[in-house]
Design a protein that fits this description.
InterPro entries: DUF4136. By secondary structure, the chain is of the alpha/beta class. The chain is built from four helices and six strands. The termini are far apart.
Length: 192
């Protein structure tokens, strides 16, 4: 019976841990070692449309929120936005998209396999598996930095996040949070 209790505790702890971390974005970045970003002071959008590749189903209001959040986060890091990309130290662009996904979870389950009358209990415990199938939407955002002088890609940051119902209800907060986490990875010191 102790093994059964230990198994139940393990399964419950695993499910709780999985539920608490499923909506946190996975954020990472990559930097071109051949480009020195330490002297950057100004930035501009790479092209007037700002987005690198626009998806047909993209929400234009959400795209505006994203562009403002990206500008605001680079400004918070001390960079100045200029209109002409040729006059900036670095140029930025972004790509965004989403994908519907299916998640299948199988976990152990126990069933009472008998019923007893009288003095004794007849039957036993049955160990089996239960399977749960869920669908969800995964959002992706990538922000790219290009060195204006060398015309080379300098930095690429991205996030992947399972879109929750609260993200859908308050998209502006979700966008700001993900953009902030991505641009935090841009570790160029700003000299003023």
């Amino acid at each position: 019976m102790n093994k059964f209790k230990a198994l139940c505790v393990f399964v419950a702890a695993s499910l709780i841990a999985a539920c608490t971390s499923t909506y946190a974005p996975k954020v990472d970045a990559d930097q071109n070692a051949n480009v020195d970003i330490s002297n950057y002071k100004t930035f501009a959008w790479l092209k007037p449309g700002k987005i690198l590749v626009e998806a047909a189903e993209a929400n234009p209001v959400a795209l505006q929120r994203m562009e403002k959040a990206i500008e605001d986060e680079f400004k918070k890091k001390g960079y100045s936005l200029v209109a002409d990309p040729e006059q900036a130290d670095f140029a930025i662009s972004y790509t965004v998209g989403n994908r519907d996904k299916i998640k299948v979870d199988t976990y152990p389950a126990t069933y009472n396999a008998g019923f007893g009358w009288g003095r004794g209990y007849y039957g036993g415990m049955y160990m089996g598996n239960e399977t749960r199938v869920r669908t969800y939407t995964e959002g992706r955002l990538a922000i790219d930095v290009y060195d204006v002088k060398t015309k080379q890609p300098a930095w690429h940051g991205w996030a992947v996040k399972k879109i929750s119902s609260s993200d859908k209800e308050n998209p502006e907060a979700a966008i700001k949070d993900v953009v902030r986490q991505i641009i935090e990875q841009f570790n160029a010191p700003v000299s003023k």
